[in-house]
Structures are given as structure tokens and as C-alpha cells.
Known about the structure:
The protein is 40% helix and 22% strand. The protein starts with 5 loop residues before the first helix and ends with a strand. Strands 3-2-1-4-5-7-6 form a seven-stranded mixed β-sheet, sandwiched between helices. The mean pLDDT is 90. It has 235 residues and is an alpha/beta fold. The chain has a single domain, classed as 3-Layer(aba) Sandwich (Rossmann fold).
Amino acid sequence: MSENNAEAKAAFEGENARNYDKTRARLMAVKDALHFCMKHVLATLPVDARILCVGAGTGDELFALADMFPTARFTVVEPSAGMVAVCRDKAAARGVEGRCHFHTGYLDSLEDNGPFDAATAILVSQFCVVYEERVAFFRGIADRLHKGGILVNADLSADLKSAEFQGLWSVWATMLHGADMPPGTAEKFLEAAGRGIAVSTDGEIKALLTESGLEDPVHFFQFLMIHGWFSRKPE
């Protein structure tokens, strides 16, 4: 998340952090599908893999990965203290806290304890609305990976200027309205799209990843405007 995006930061603090899982419960089927695909993307990881979860929130991908890779270890990076507290409590309840290192803050303040085999950044980079800032975000992750290490990222993606966007938006808004999100969520999203929240095309995301020092980005997942890619740090 951008350090300059104060409104986005506030959305993940306090009562919002404590209620985050509840307000998005009806959307978990989307992430479940993403996690299922991600399992196969990461199938070649070593059994003792070290995995970096950037902007991990309350831990959706962390717990999916912990189930998939029962001997892997995780570093969880999240700037919201409230979200980290929820994530840590859930990790303790699930018996995986001992495999996790929690860092409250941004990636650039994480101590260097050696490279990671893989990293995830799920619906995070879209809060970096300045191009150079977004490149720096992905470059910071690439710098933390082993040679050949894999990044899985998911971000909002669409061509906002295309003729098909209105049809896509209509379905997206229907989904949000049916998910018990706070009133006005869909309308606020449309207002912020491309300004307060980055919504990029597939080609733009691949260019960002490549400029950040990763190679061969593959677009492997789509659900409406939520898309997923994987790429590797060059050997």
C-alpha cells in the first residue's frame, strides 16, 4: 500500500480491521479460486520454502499457503497494526504462528534475513497510483527473492477506456451490492478507479513487473477485474 494513500490506510485500521473478514465473507469464493490456482503455480517450491507475504492483511493467502505447504515458513509484512493483530490471532488459533514472522510496517523496513523462495502481493500494488512508486514496490519484492524465485501478484485490471468496461463494471457492481459491502462501496470504487486506486491493463502490469526486475510474467487468473500473474527473478 502506498504510504501516501491516507484514505486507503484508514480503511484497514481500527474497527475496519476487526470487521474486515466479516464484511468480505461473501467474496471469499474469489480468493479461494485464486489460492487454488496459486497452489499449482508454486508446486515446485522446496518443502522448507521461505515465503514472503507482502500486504498480507488478515492472512487469507498466508493460511491458504500454510495449508498447502505444511513445513514452509512465512514472513508476513503488513503496514496496518490492526490487520496484523487479527492475522496473528488467527495464526495462533490455527496453530501456524510458530512458522510465521510478523512485521508491522512496509517492506523497506523489514530486516534482511536472506532471500525468499517465493512472494505474494495480493490486491496490494493497486494502492500505488504513481507509476514509479509501483515499480519500486515490485522491485523491492524482487530484491528479496532468490534467483529463480517466484512472485505471485493479483491486482485490479481492466481497460477503463474500452467499450466492454461498462458491461464488466455492471457485473462488478452487482457482485459488490450482493456481498453486503457498506452502502456506496461500488460507486466509490468507480469514482476512485484510475485515480485513488490503480486499475491497469494486462500489458501495463506485465511491463511493471518486467521493469521491476522480474521476467516472463504469466497471466494465470481472472475473476472479473481481479487478475493474477506470476513471474520470476532471473537466474
